[in-house]
């Protein structure tokens, strides 16, 4: 088994290969948080780059509680205004026989302060990040929970209506669905909290209602944290238990990831933590492996037969094929390499290259003490967030019909991205 092999995800849907563009925030929605021509450009570029599956950036179910000002939001009272652009987006992402799934999300307490002074969360537990970037969340009422369920189901129906071939429910990285799973954030004593069964109730309820509306042949995926990597948070044991529940629900693909805003393991930072005393460090043997979350995928695979996708860190053809051949996972998720070279997927499939670009190795604010290997965690963090800005700018360039720029420096990228976010925030009609 290797990356060139096809893979059946439903009775009527087959991935042409095992490479998936994992979800990345695009940040190119208009002032109404609507889809537009820039999304078409971007996803047509990625589809023509050879991937078998493409998963969109997180489409928000509630415009009041978005992850960022450039998110797409789909709401019942306004969705018809962007119906045509959504159909064009779905069609663009399906070019070149690519399957295209919509990732659906709610930011919960990770809604930035400029968008909401009082975000929603399972319990009133504020995000522990210095400054006033995130407000104190309101503990959700039963009415709030039922509204969120309704919104997730509605957006899933829109996804199918406009031509997406599947959905992914974002239950990782500290967003609302993963907040409910975490005992650190979900301190409720009603049926939506307490034990892992109670904490997983929201996710399972949404899946069941989506399945009733979408049918058995429409792909439903979940992105799940392997762990929060914080003491008292969502644990690997919890993750395995939830994976078993998801298998029972018959989901079509489970993507393994990890970390939150407080513990940014999702971007490959092992030592940077907002709360160092609560941080759970990974073993050196785990860090040394090519993919960030492969060890955790192995543990989940030992307990379930559900199709698995692992995202984060894969770069070599050998590493990808070894993971597939061993049976640890069925699909390889890639993201950052496709920002700098959208054709790198086809290049590695056709063996024109044996390694995807690893931009993180060269993207840094300086050398020596200013490099990514600096002994100072603050410098490591600055490098990491400047790198993220570099990838965001490349995404925006492709959305505007331009190729990625290898001449762009990380500090300039950070400035450009900050400027763009402020401009979008100022323009938002909210």
What this model shows, in words?
It is built from 14 helices and 13 strands. The protein has 430 residues and is α/β, with parallel strands linked by helices. The chain has one domain (7-355): Aldolase class I (TIM Barrel), CATH 3.20.20. An 8-stranded parallel beta barrel has the order 3-4-6-9-10-11-12-13, surrounded by 6 helices. Strands 1-2 form a two-stranded antiparallel ribbon. A two-stranded parallel sheet has the order 7-8. The protein is globular, with a radius of gyration of 20 Å. The termini are far apart. The relative contact order is 0.13.
Short descriptors:
single chain; alpha/beta; TIM Barrel; 8-stranded parallel β-barrel; 36% helix; 12% strand
Q: What is this structure's SSE topology?
A:
Layout: E1 7-10, E2 13-15, E3 19-21, H1 37-47, E4 53-55, E5 59-60, H2 83-93, E6 99-105, E7 120-121, E8 138-139, H3 142-162, E9 166-171, H4 176-181, H5 196-199, H6 201-214, E10 219-225, H7 236-249, E11 253-257, H8 284-288, H9 294-301, E12 308-311, H10 317-325, E13 331-334, H11 337-340, H12 344-349, H13 377-399, H14 410-427
Parallel strand pairs: 3-4, 3-13, 4-6, 5-6, 6-9, 7-8, 9-10, 10-11, 11-12, 12-13
Antiparallel strand pairs: 1-2
């Amino acid at each position: 088994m290797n990356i060139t092999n096809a893979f059946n995800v439903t009775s009527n849907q087959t991935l042409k290969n095992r490479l998936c563009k994992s979800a990345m925030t695009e940040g190119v929605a208009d002032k109404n948080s609507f889809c537009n021509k820039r999304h078409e450009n971007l996803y047509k570029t990625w589809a023509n780059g050879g991937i078998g599956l493409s998963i969109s950036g997180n489409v928000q179910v509630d415009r009041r509680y978005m992850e960022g000002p450039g998110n797409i939001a789909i709401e019942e009272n306004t969705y018809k205004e962007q119906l045509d652009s959504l159909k064009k987006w779905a069609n663009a992402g399906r070019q070149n026989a690519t399957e295209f799934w919509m990732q659906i999300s709610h930011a919960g307490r990770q809604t930035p302060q400029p968008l909401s002074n009082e975000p929603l969360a399972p319990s009133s537990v504020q995000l522990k990040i210095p400054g006033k970037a995130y407000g104190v969340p309101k503990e959700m009422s039963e009415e709030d929970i039922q509204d969120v369920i309704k919104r997730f189901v509605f957006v899933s129906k829109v996804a199918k209506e406009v031509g997406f071939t599947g959905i992914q429910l974002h239950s990782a990285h500290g967003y609302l669905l993963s907040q409910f799973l975490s005992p650190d954030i979900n301190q409720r004593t009603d049926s939506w909290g307490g034990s892992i069964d109670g904490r997983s109730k929201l996710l399972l309820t949404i899946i069941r209602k989506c399945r009733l509306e979408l049918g058995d042949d429409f792909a439903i995926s979940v992105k799940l944290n392997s762990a929060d990597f914080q003491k008292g948070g969502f644990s690997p044991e919890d993750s395995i238990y939830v994976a078993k529940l998801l298998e029972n629900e018959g989901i079509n693909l489970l993507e393994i990831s990890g970390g939150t805003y407080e513990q940014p393991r999702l971007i490959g930072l092992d030592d940077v933590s907002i709360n160092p005393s609560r941080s759970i460090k990974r073993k050196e043997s785990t860090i040394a492996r090519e993919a960030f979350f492969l060890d955790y995928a192995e543990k989940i695979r030992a307990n379930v037969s559900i199709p698995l996708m692992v995202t984060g860190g894969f770069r070599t053809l050998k590493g990808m094929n070894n993971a597939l051949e061993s049976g640890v996972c069925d699909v390889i998720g890639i993201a950052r390499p496709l920002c700098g070279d959208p054709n790198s997927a086809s290049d590695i499939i056709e063996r024109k290259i044996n390694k995807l670009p690893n931009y993180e190795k060269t993207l840094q604010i300086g050398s020596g003490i200013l490099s990514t290997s600096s002994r100072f965690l603050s410098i490591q963090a600055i490098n990491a967030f400047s790198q993220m800005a570099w990838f965001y700018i490349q995404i925006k360039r492709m959305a505007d019909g331009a190729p990625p720029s290898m001449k762009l420096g990380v500090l300039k990228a950070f400035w450009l991205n900050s400027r763009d976010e402020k401009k979008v925030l100022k323009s938002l009609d909210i």
